[in-house]
Design brief:
The chain has about 475 residues and is an alpha+beta fold. It contains 10 helices and 12 strands. The two termini are about 95 Å apart.
């Protein structure tokens, strides 16, 4: 069976069409000879007896109305191939028409044997000769009122003629069905092969970097594939353009500090201090070296994030309170004048490793420090982290592409920090958005939760609120006692 499947996969659609037609015709042939032919034989026999019964009943009624009549209309054998004979029980003789050559002594003997004990009604019999040289006879017998017996016979010639006609009609119908099926399948396969060839040529041109156009007006799966390929080609062109721009940006960002370091170093070597003194000139070199190092680290981090996998244990196990505390401890000294406000629930757990999430928080806080005027607000709740600054709003046209590499805003450095944040957040199943507020900008990270998780969060939130209310109540009581004292 496996070999058959492998063989079918290697066939083209045209070969598959021919194979299907061959199997259909073979199945029809087997159906005709193995199943339909016995059914046709049975139908033919029933039809022959039906004809016998019809003519036999008519003649039996006539003879019962004219008992002992010497002239009996026994027919000429043209009424559907039926021959009528009468058996005289008193004299044990047959009244047989002259044209009835099929009524031989053997047939008469078979009839006499079957007539024994017949009563009222019609009885069907078949004469099957021992040798196949004589034709088979079907006959129906019934007793008349005057003690005679009417016998109506039909030879196998009529039966064979009817059977052949029936079989020919069935075979012709099957051939017609096969032809119609072949035409329909051919048209259908052609409508599939043509667009597939278009798609193949389109892909080949894209592969060879040639101008390509694909127009397929279909709304089925092939149309969906065609539209997807067109969209993919547009996206590839877009990515290729972005890649070129990224390379240009990287080259420019690396070239500037390298050129500065080189020129300052050569000047110092020649005994010239571009910044007035040796110490200040070296400080410039160190500053650009730090910038270059930070740039390289960002590029390495961005490349590393492309291969970041979620290999953590299922569930939330990372304490984000500790991560945020470590980040703020190291970054808040950059701008001591900035006030950090916190609205953080205790023991909030996130999914993921500490190092990637620390990079996320560092980049968001560093970004907020660059734009904030006086305040940065950190909000941490189960499944949600917000970093808000009170700086200038982001241009609306930049919001949709804010997390793409090298998308730098006013005052931005390298344009890599937010793209790194986006990749880490998505790897761990979270979402991130940026939005302008009435005063400032908010970066929001959240995770979609099911009803069970939401109920647990609400329960924990209520518990925390009760704890805070109790703490405030105790604090008021202590203040009151101190005032009274």
């Amino acid at each position: 069976m496996k070999r058959i499947r492998l063989w079918l996969r290697e066939l083209s659609l045209s070969q598959q069409l021919l194979t299907i037609l061959f199997l259909v015709i073979s199945a029809l042939t087997v159906f005709i000879f193995a199943f339909l032919t016995p059914q046709i034989n049975e139908i033919t026999t029933r039809e022959m007896y039906r004809v016998l019964h019809s003519t036999h009943s008519s003649l039996s009624w006539y003879l019962n109305q004219h008992e002992k009549e010497e002239t009996i209309p026994l027919g000429s054998g043209d009424d559907g191939g039926v021959i009528h004979i009468i058996y005289e029980t008193d004299t044990d003789t047959f009244l047989i028409p002259a044209f009835a050559l099929e009524i031989t002594d053997a047939v008469e003997k078979d009839i006499r044997r079957n007539l024994t004990g017949i009563q009222e009604g019609m009885y069907d019999f078949a004469y099957l000769p021992e040798n196949n040289s004589a034709p088979t006879l079907l006959y129906t017998v019934s007793s008349l009122r005057d003690s005679r017996v009417l016998i109506s016979l039909m030879t196998s010639a009529s039966e064979s003629q009817f059977r052949s006609l029936l079989i020919n009609n069935v075979v012709n119908l099957n051939i017609l069905v096969a032809i119609v099926l072949f035409v329909i399948l051919t048209v259908w396969v052609t409508t599939i092969i043509y667009p597939l060839n278009q798609i193949k040529n389109y892909i080949t041109k894209i592969k060879n970097d040639e101008p390509a156009e694909l127009t397929i007006n279909r709304y089925d799966e092939i149309g969906d594939v065609a539209y997807a390929l067109v969209d993919m080609e547009k996206e590839l062109q877009k990515q290729s353009k972005e890649k070129q721009e990224m390379i240009q940006n990287i080259s420019h960002d690396l070239k500037t500090p390298i050129a500065t370091i080189r020129s300052y170093s050569e000047s110092i070597k020649d005994g010239i201090y571009p910044y007035g003194t040796l110490e200040k000139s070296i400080d410039v070199i160190i500053e650009h070296a730090d910038r270059l190092e930070k740039k390289v680290r960002s590029l390495i981090a961005l490349n590393k994030m492309d291969y970041l996998l979620d290999e953590c244990e299922e569930g939330e196990h990372l304490n984000m309170n500790e991560v945020i505390d470590k980040v703020l401890l190291s970054l808040k000294v950059i701008r001591p004048e900035i006030t950090f406000e916190r609205d953080m629930d205790k023991n909030v757990m996130f999914h993921g490793d500490e190092d990637p999430w620390r990079i996320v928080v560092e980049n968001l806080v560093d970004n907020a420090l660059r734009y904030a005027e006086s305040t940065i607000r950190i909000e941490l709740h189960p499944g949600e982290l917000n970093v808000i600054n009170d700086g200038a709003p982001i241009e609306e046209d930049r919001l949709p592409k804010l997390f793409k590499p090298y998308e730098r805003g006013t005052g931005g450095q390298f344009g890599l920090g937010l793209s790194i944040v986006y990749k880490i957040v998505n790897t761990y199943g979270y979402h991130i958005t940026a939005e302008n507020l009435a005063k400032g900008v908010a970066f929001r990270i959240w995770k979609e939760m099911d009803k069970k998780e939401m109920r647990a969060i609400q329960k924990e939130k209520k518990k925390t609120e009760r704890f805070r209310a109790r703490e405030k109540k105790l604090e008021k009581a202590e203040n009151k006692d101190r005032n009274e004292a």
